[in-house]
Each structure stands twice: as structure tokens, then as C-alpha cells.
Amino acid sequence: METLEGSELCFPQLLNTSCRKPVRPHFETMLIYILLSSISLLTVVLNLLVIISISHFKQLHTPTNLILLSLAVSDFFVGFVMCFQIIHLDGCWFLGDLMCALGQYLAYIITSASVGTMVLISVDRFVAICHPLHYSTEITEKRVQVCVCLCWVCSVIFQSLILKDILEKTGRYISCVGECIIVVNYIAGLVDLIFSFIVPITVIVVLYMRVFVVAVSQARAMRLHIAAVTLQKSVKVTAKKSEMKAARTLGVVVVVFLICLCPYYCVALTGQDNLLNASSATFVICLSYFNSCLNPLIYVLFYPWFRKTIRLIVTFKIMQSDSREAKML
């Protein structure tokens, strides 16, 4: 009987202080392991392809793609953060209190940077569709690079302040050995909720509603005058179509992002995210991570240049000396 009890403990040698493993059917456990491991691997591989594509090919060095590169980097790290969830699936944490806190800290930074990047995407599309004449002068590569860097730096600083107490006192709320749990201060959690979700999501929704209204009116105007345009004007029309197509594609990215992230913050609004290892929060956390796997799949469906770069990467044609100059658009 003692042996049976010991086998249910995370650390059988610590009978009085060890956490107990939750009882789960073997088939269910293996299915979850395989599913999450596959999603984690796919997330890392697909986003690595996006990073290589935009970084390698010079023609893809556009302001919009630089923002997508930032999003791909955050999604790439999400694939690694998922490993922490996979390790903790059996209910036992073997990497120590410090790694538990660092894992949560990294997850917070990535989420914050992703939300900030979505705001940048919305601003980029707002200027491109609503103020097209000012786009080339207002949205430059250098300005986008500065904004992306600020987004990441601010995410690191902001989350360091939010999780300062947790990082300084790791394992403070651990009730048994083998548990990975953090408790976020109420005020800190409220500040994070406001500045990492409510404010940026409001900005995103307002900007994209404006983009949608303008895009619809422009599409209607083009349909009315398409037969009467000259060759010179038709080039402008094609450019407008390209911008609106990009707006639709990035709109899909933003909508999917909101669908995957909103449930987590809805849980936060009810006060259930204070215990991040609670079973009620497991699904919404995994859903927010799954969004990082979906983004590259959206690019595959909507961006011909991404499908082309994938072929060049997997066939090792990017190793050729002149591959950087290849035409992708």
C-alpha cells in the first residue's frame, strides 16, 4: 500500500512534502502529450520559416513584413514556452522554483510583445488604407524597426515590474514539492489586464473598424470606375487592391489572435488567473499558445511569396549566392 502511495507522488522519497500526481487515463495522457508536442514542434518550424524568409530575401524587407517578423519571433518563442506546459502535464514540476517563475515571466513578455505587435499591424494598415498618400513617408523601415524594438523593450520592462515580487521570491506560494504556481498581486494583475489587453485591444478594434469602412468604400468606388480607368490609373488601382488584400489578410491574423487570446483575459476578468496552474485556466492558456501556430498557416493560405520562399528554403536554393536578390513579390 505504501508503494502504491509512493508511486502517486511526484517525489516518492519525500512522502510528507511531495505533491501528488493527478490520476488520468494513460490513453488520454498520451494523446495530450502527442497533440501538444506536435503543435509545439509545428509552431517552432513554421515560424522559423517565416523568420528565415523575411530576413533572407531583400525584396521582403518592407515595413509591414518587419512587423510580421516581430510577430514570428514572438510566436517562435511560444513554441518553446509550450514545452513548459508539456513538462507540467502530469501535474509534477521537476525543474525547480526558479525555472517555474522564469517560464511564466517569459510567457508574459511574449504575450505582451505579441499584443504590441498587433497594435503596430493595425496602425500600419490604418495608414496604408486610410492615408495612402502619406504611407511611404510616415511608415518607413527605420521607424518600424524603432517601434518594434520599443515594443519588445517596453514588454520586458513592464512585465519585470508586474512580476517583480514573483521573480524575487520564487516558490513563495508553493504548498508542496513538485508544484509550479505563481500568484499575481491583484493590483499588478489589474494593471497588466488594462495595459496588456483592454487598451491595446480597444486601439486594434477601433483602427480596424475604420480600415474596414474605408476599404469597403474604396472597393465600391473601384467597381464603379474600373471600366473607365486608364493604364496609369489601373496601376494605382492594382496597388490599392494589393493594400486592401494585405489589410484583409492581416485582418484575419488580428481576428484569430483576438479569438485565441480573449478567453484567457476573460478568465482574468473573473479573477481565475491568479492560480495559473488551475485546471480552469489550462484550456485558455493552450488556446492562446495555439494562435502562434495558426499565424504561419494563414500566411501560407494568403501570401504567395511565403509559399515561394518555403519551396526555396526546403530545397536549399537559398544557399545560392544570388538567392537574396530573388523576386518574391
Report on the architecture of this protein:
Helix content is 74%, strand content 0%. With 329 residues, the chain is mainly α. The protein has a single domain (32-325), classed as Rhopdopsin 7-helix transmembrane proteins. Helix 2 packs parallel to helix 10 (279-302), helix 4 packs parallel to helix 8 and helix 6 runs antiparallel to helix 8 (186-225). The protein is globular and about 75 Å long.
Main traits of this protein?
single chain; 329 residues; mainly alpha; Rhopdopsin 7-helix transmembrane proteins; 11 helices; globular; disordered N terminus; TAAR
List the helices and strands and how they pair.
Layout: H1 2-7, H2 26-56, H3 63-87, H4 96-130, H5 132-138, H6 141-162, H7 164-168, H8 186-225, H9 231-269, H10 279-302, H11 304-314
Helix pairs in contact: 2-3, 2-10, 2-11, 3-4, 3-6, 3-10, 4-5, 4-6, 4-8, 4-9, 6-8, 8-9, 9-10
Using the coordinates above, name the CATH class.
Answer: Mainly Alpha
Which fold name is given in CATH as the topology?
Answer: Rhopdopsin 7-helix transmembrane proteins
Order of helices and strands: HHHHHHHHHHH
End-to-end Cα distance: 68 Å
Query: Biggest sheet, in brief?
Result: none
Rg from C-alpha positions?
23 Å
**Multimerization status:** single chain
Total domains, how many? 1
Which residues sit in consecutive blocks of at least 5 with pLDDT less than 50? 1-6, 230-235, 272-278
**What share of residues are in beta strands?**
under 5%
CATH architecture: Up-down Bundle
